[in-house]
Write a structure and sequence with these properties.
Length: 253
Protein backbone atom coordinates (compact mmCIF):
# COMPACT_ATOMS: atom_id res chain seq x y z
CA UNK A 1 0.00 0.00 0.00
CA UNK A 2 1.05 3.59 -0.63
CA UNK A 3 1.67 6.14 2.07
CA UNK A 4 -1.54 7.24 3.83
CA UNK A 5 -1.92 10.99 3.97
CA UNK A 6 -3.62 12.79 6.85
CA UNK A 7 -6.90 13.63 5.07
CA UNK A 8 -7.97 16.13 7.72
CA UNK A 9 -4.91 18.20 7.01
CA UNK A 10 -5.25 17.78 3.25
CA UNK A 11 -8.90 18.90 3.04
CA UNK A 12 -8.83 21.50 5.78
CA UNK A 13 -9.12 25.14 4.75
CA UNK A 14 -5.77 26.93 4.58
CA UNK A 15 -3.68 23.78 4.88
CA UNK A 16 -0.46 24.50 6.76
CA UNK A 17 2.79 22.71 6.01
CA UNK A 18 4.13 20.73 8.98
CA UNK A 19 6.37 22.87 11.19
CA UNK A 20 9.52 20.74 10.69
CA UNK A 21 9.44 21.10 6.90
CA UNK A 22 8.77 24.82 7.15
CA UNK A 23 11.70 25.19 9.53
CA UNK A 24 13.99 23.33 7.11
CA UNK A 25 12.96 25.65 4.27
CA UNK A 26 13.57 28.72 6.40
CA UNK A 27 17.05 27.50 7.28
CA UNK A 28 17.81 26.63 3.64
CA UNK A 29 16.80 30.05 2.34
CA UNK A 30 18.55 32.05 5.06
CA UNK A 31 21.75 33.62 3.70
CA UNK A 32 25.02 33.08 5.60
CA UNK A 33 26.16 36.08 7.64
CA UNK A 34 29.08 36.85 5.31
CA UNK A 35 26.88 37.62 2.27
CA UNK A 36 26.12 41.13 3.52
CA UNK A 37 29.81 41.66 4.25
CA UNK A 38 30.68 40.68 0.68
CA UNK A 39 28.16 43.13 -0.72
CA UNK A 40 29.56 45.94 1.42
CA UNK A 41 33.14 45.16 0.33
CA UNK A 42 32.15 45.24 -3.33
CA UNK A 43 30.38 48.57 -2.83
CA UNK A 44 33.47 50.07 -1.16
CA UNK A 45 35.67 48.81 -4.00
CA UNK A 46 33.36 50.23 -6.68
CA UNK A 47 33.07 53.57 -4.88
CA UNK A 48 36.68 54.06 -3.81
CA UNK A 49 38.75 51.78 -6.03
CA UNK A 50 41.44 49.36 -4.82
CA UNK A 51 43.07 51.98 -2.57
CA UNK A 52 39.90 52.02 -0.45
CA UNK A 53 40.64 48.48 0.77
CA UNK A 54 43.60 47.15 2.76
CA UNK A 55 45.47 44.13 1.41
CA UNK A 56 43.47 41.51 3.28
CA UNK A 57 40.12 42.89 2.06
CA UNK A 58 41.31 43.07 -1.55
CA UNK A 59 42.42 39.47 -1.15
CA UNK A 60 38.98 38.67 0.26
CA UNK A 61 37.41 39.99 -2.94
CA UNK A 62 39.54 37.57 -4.95
CA UNK A 63 38.73 34.66 -2.67
CA UNK A 64 34.96 35.33 -2.90
CA UNK A 65 35.02 33.92 -6.43
CA UNK A 66 37.55 31.19 -5.74
CA UNK A 67 35.81 29.88 -2.59
CA UNK A 68 32.15 30.93 -3.07
CA UNK A 69 30.40 29.25 -0.12
CA UNK A 70 32.89 29.93 2.66
CA UNK A 71 33.63 32.93 4.88
CA UNK A 72 36.93 33.98 3.30
CA UNK A 73 37.83 36.77 5.72
CA UNK A 74 39.75 34.49 8.14
CA UNK A 75 41.54 32.84 5.20
CA UNK A 76 42.58 36.21 3.74
CA UNK A 77 43.87 37.38 7.13
CA UNK A 78 45.77 34.12 7.63
CA UNK A 79 47.45 34.50 4.22
CA UNK A 80 48.52 38.08 4.95
CA UNK A 81 49.76 37.08 8.42
CA UNK A 82 51.82 34.27 6.90
CA UNK A 83 53.32 36.10 3.91
CA UNK A 84 53.14 39.80 4.85
CA UNK A 85 51.28 41.50 1.99
CA UNK A 86 49.02 40.85 -1.00
CA UNK A 87 52.02 40.99 -3.34
CA UNK A 88 53.85 38.42 -1.23
CA UNK A 89 50.80 36.14 -1.15
CA UNK A 90 50.60 36.18 -4.96
CA UNK A 91 54.36 35.73 -5.20
CA UNK A 92 54.49 32.76 -2.82
CA UNK A 93 54.97 29.23 -4.22
CA UNK A 94 51.76 27.19 -4.48
CA UNK A 95 53.17 24.61 -2.06
CA UNK A 96 53.47 27.24 0.69
CA UNK A 97 50.03 28.69 -0.05
CA UNK A 98 48.54 25.24 0.50
CA UNK A 99 49.96 25.18 4.03
CA UNK A 100 47.40 27.83 5.02
CA UNK A 101 44.12 26.35 6.26
CA UNK A 102 41.39 26.76 3.64
CA UNK A 103 43.74 26.88 0.65
CA UNK A 104 43.77 23.71 -1.43
CA UNK A 105 45.60 22.92 -4.68
CA UNK A 106 42.87 24.43 -6.88
CA UNK A 107 42.74 27.77 -5.05
CA UNK A 108 46.55 27.92 -4.86
CA UNK A 109 46.74 27.41 -8.62
CA UNK A 110 44.08 30.08 -9.18
CA UNK A 111 46.10 32.57 -7.12
CA UNK A 112 49.18 31.78 -9.21
CA UNK A 113 47.13 32.40 -12.37
CA UNK A 114 46.17 35.82 -11.00
CA UNK A 115 49.86 36.51 -10.24
CA UNK A 116 50.86 35.47 -13.77
CA UNK A 117 48.17 37.76 -15.22
CA UNK A 118 49.53 40.70 -13.22
CA UNK A 119 53.04 39.95 -14.50
CA UNK A 120 51.82 39.84 -18.11
CA UNK A 121 50.11 43.20 -17.65
CA UNK A 122 53.30 44.70 -16.21
CA UNK A 123 55.34 43.24 -19.07
CA UNK A 124 52.89 44.77 -21.55
CA UNK A 125 53.70 48.20 -20.14
CA UNK A 126 57.34 47.66 -21.09
CA UNK A 127 57.34 45.61 -24.29
CA UNK A 128 57.56 47.62 -27.49
CA UNK A 129 58.49 50.83 -25.68
CA UNK A 130 61.74 52.68 -25.16
CA UNK A 131 62.78 51.07 -21.90
CA UNK A 132 65.01 53.79 -20.46
CA UNK A 133 62.23 56.40 -20.65
CA UNK A 134 59.75 54.02 -18.98
CA UNK A 135 61.93 53.16 -16.00
CA UNK A 136 59.11 53.04 -13.44
CA UNK A 137 57.15 50.55 -15.54
CA UNK A 138 60.31 48.49 -15.98
CA UNK A 139 60.91 48.33 -12.23
CA UNK A 140 57.25 47.45 -11.61
CA UNK A 141 57.54 44.57 -14.04
CA UNK A 142 60.80 43.29 -12.55
CA UNK A 143 59.38 43.47 -9.04
CA UNK A 144 56.20 41.61 -10.01
CA UNK A 145 58.25 38.90 -11.71
CA UNK A 146 61.09 38.47 -9.21
CA UNK A 147 60.70 40.16 -5.83
CA UNK A 148 59.07 37.22 -4.10
CA UNK A 149 60.92 34.32 -5.71
CA UNK A 150 62.49 32.08 -3.07
CA UNK A 151 65.55 31.34 -5.23
CA UNK A 152 67.90 33.71 -7.02
CA UNK A 153 67.14 34.35 -10.68
CA UNK A 154 69.38 36.07 -13.19
CA UNK A 155 67.30 37.80 -15.85
CA UNK A 156 68.48 39.68 -18.93
CA UNK A 157 66.54 42.33 -20.83
CA UNK A 158 67.85 42.49 -24.41
CA UNK A 159 67.42 45.86 -26.16
CA UNK A 160 67.66 47.08 -29.75
CA UNK A 161 69.40 50.24 -30.99
CA UNK A 162 66.46 52.37 -29.85
CA UNK A 163 66.45 50.69 -26.42
CA UNK A 164 63.24 48.85 -27.22
CA UNK A 165 62.78 45.49 -25.54
CA UNK A 166 63.63 42.60 -27.87
CA UNK A 167 63.46 39.79 -25.32
CA UNK A 168 63.27 39.15 -21.60
CA UNK A 169 64.86 35.89 -20.51
CA UNK A 170 65.74 34.16 -17.27
CA UNK A 171 69.23 32.84 -17.96
CA UNK A 172 69.95 31.16 -14.65
CA UNK A 173 68.10 30.07 -11.51
CA UNK A 174 70.22 29.29 -8.48
CA UNK A 175 69.93 28.78 -4.74
CA UNK A 176 68.63 31.09 -2.02
CA UNK A 177 71.81 33.18 -2.12
CA UNK A 178 73.72 32.41 -5.33
CA UNK A 179 73.18 32.16 -9.07
CA UNK A 180 75.98 31.09 -11.41
CA UNK A 181 76.41 33.60 -14.24
CA UNK A 182 78.70 33.17 -17.24
CA UNK A 183 79.63 36.43 -19.03
CA UNK A 184 80.34 34.69 -22.34
CA UNK A 185 76.86 33.11 -22.34
CA UNK A 186 75.29 36.53 -21.71
CA UNK A 187 77.16 38.07 -24.65
CA UNK A 188 76.56 35.06 -26.89
CA UNK A 189 72.80 35.32 -26.39
CA UNK A 190 72.87 39.08 -27.02
CA UNK A 191 74.61 38.46 -30.36
CA UNK A 192 72.08 35.76 -31.29
CA UNK A 193 69.26 38.27 -30.73
CA UNK A 194 71.13 41.13 -32.47
CA UNK A 195 70.83 43.13 -29.26
CA UNK A 196 72.70 46.42 -28.95
CA UNK A 197 72.38 46.65 -25.18
CA UNK A 198 71.31 44.70 -22.13
CA UNK A 199 69.95 45.39 -18.68
CA UNK A 200 70.90 42.79 -16.09
CA UNK A 201 68.43 41.98 -13.33
CA UNK A 202 68.59 39.55 -10.44
CA UNK A 203 66.78 39.13 -7.15
CA UNK A 204 67.88 38.71 -3.55
CA UNK A 205 65.48 36.31 -1.78
CA UNK A 206 66.71 37.72 1.55
CA UNK A 207 64.76 40.87 0.69
CA UNK A 208 67.77 43.20 0.93
CA UNK A 209 68.67 44.57 -2.53
CA UNK A 210 72.13 45.83 -1.52
CA UNK A 211 74.69 44.68 -4.14
CA UNK A 212 77.30 42.25 -2.86
CA UNK A 213 80.97 42.37 -3.82
CA UNK A 214 80.38 39.27 -5.97
CA UNK A 215 77.49 41.04 -7.74
CA UNK A 216 79.72 44.01 -8.58
CA UNK A 217 82.62 41.88 -9.82
CA UNK A 218 80.37 39.72 -11.98
CA UNK A 219 78.80 42.81 -13.55
CA UNK A 220 82.20 44.28 -14.40
CA UNK A 221 83.19 40.99 -16.06
CA UNK A 222 80.09 41.10 -18.25
CA UNK A 223 80.78 44.74 -19.18
CA UNK A 224 84.38 43.90 -20.11
CA UNK A 225 83.24 40.95 -22.24
CA UNK A 226 80.42 42.85 -23.98
CA UNK A 227 82.09 46.19 -24.69
CA UNK A 228 84.55 45.03 -27.42
CA UNK A 229 81.59 43.57 -29.33
CA UNK A 230 79.61 46.81 -29.23
CA UNK A 231 77.09 45.65 -26.63
CA UNK A 232 76.33 48.13 -23.85
CA UNK A 233 75.37 47.17 -20.31
CA UNK A 234 72.99 49.94 -19.28
CA UNK A 235 72.50 48.80 -15.70
CA UNK A 236 72.34 45.93 -13.26
CA UNK A 237 69.21 46.08 -11.12
CA UNK A 238 68.85 44.08 -7.93
CA UNK A 239 65.31 43.35 -6.78
CA UNK A 240 64.28 42.53 -3.21
CA UNK A 241 61.09 42.59 -1.17
CA UNK A 242 62.43 45.69 0.62
CA UNK A 243 63.07 47.62 -2.60
CA UNK A 244 65.50 47.67 -5.48
CA UNK A 245 69.00 48.92 -6.21
CA UNK A 246 70.55 50.23 -9.42
CA UNK A 247 74.29 49.70 -9.75
CA UNK A 248 74.45 52.60 -12.19
CA UNK A 249 72.49 54.77 -9.78
CA UNK A 250 74.90 53.80 -7.00
CA UNK A 251 77.85 54.65 -9.30
CA UNK A 252 79.14 51.09 -9.03
CA UNK A 253 79.42 50.68 -12.80
Amino acid sequence: MGKVEDERAFFSEGWIEPPKTALKKAVATEKPHYHGHRDRLRERFVAGGPDALPDYELLELLLFRLIPRVDTKPIAKALIARFGSLAEVLGAPASLLEEVKGIGPTVATDLKVIAATAQRMARGEVRGREVLSNWTQLLDYCRSAMAFENREQFRILFLDKKNGLIADEVQQTGTVDHTPVYPREVVKRALELSASAVILVHNHPSGDPTPSRADIEMTKQIIDTAKPLGIAVHDHIIIGRKGNASMKGLLLI
